Amino acid sequence: MKKPLIAANWKMHKTKAETEAFFKDWNTHSFPDDREVAFFPSFTLISVVRDLLPGGHLLGAQNCHEKEKGAFTGEVSCSQLLDAGCSYVLVGHSERRHLFGEGDGRVSAKFKAAIEAGLRPMLCVGETLAQREKGATLETVLGQLEADLGTVFPLSGFDVAYEPVWAIGTGKVAGPKDAEVVHSAIRAWLDERKSGGDSRILYGGSVKPANAAELLAVPEMDGVLVGGASLDSESFHAILTAGI
Ligand code: PGA
User: Fold this and answer.
1) What's the CA-to-centroid distance between 83 and ligand 1, angstroms?
2) From the CB of 176, is ligand 1 less than 6 Å away?
3) Which of 58, 108, 140, 214 could serve as 38's disulfide partner, Cβ 3.0–4.6 Å?
4) Global pTM?
5) Which of 208, 184, 194 lies closest to 153, judged by CA?
6) How far apart are CA 55 and CA 28, in angstroms?
């Protein structure tokens, strides 16, 4: 049984002072033994979070470049992230796909680069509202897995976050039943390829203290990836302890 992972995706938020204030409060809390915690701050905050993070909490970046080094102005490589203290990286977040035009080719290259560098990628997948409305949710999500994970199986050392695009930052959340259907399909897809035995499947999209307990109770739910509600220490801690 994997311990659920409660992960904070801070996106393009927080200054150094705001990060210090967050951890001043965060570090007064106690943390449940049966859940793990990860933070994904902006590049500029990685070393700040690293130095304030309680022991055992994990640190990751929100993006990486697929090349190890070179003339790629503005980019950050997996080895630089490892060097900065990260063990994780988000790959294929829907904001990268939809706002920055990252297609599956790019996402797949980043996923492979992270695995090869020894960083644990968390591959984000999810359907748009239009895809859901035409009944193409599973086709979209499994198609992204197919395109992004590569073709060499078995594969391990990664996680998957199911984040329906229509639920991110909108206040709309997939119901526990909807999440269960997609999570089970992802797990079955991985099992068929003898892959992801150590992978968690997280849900993301408008997770809040009020809905976290019912989402975390879903079978095949190995954690949550939280954007907006992770920016406040009290609200993120309420999610971390939801249902226990
Ligand atoms: P949200 O973002 O919780 O603000 O919807 C989740 C995410 O994009 O990872």
Assistant:
1) 27
2) no
3) 58
4) 0.97
5) 194
6) 13
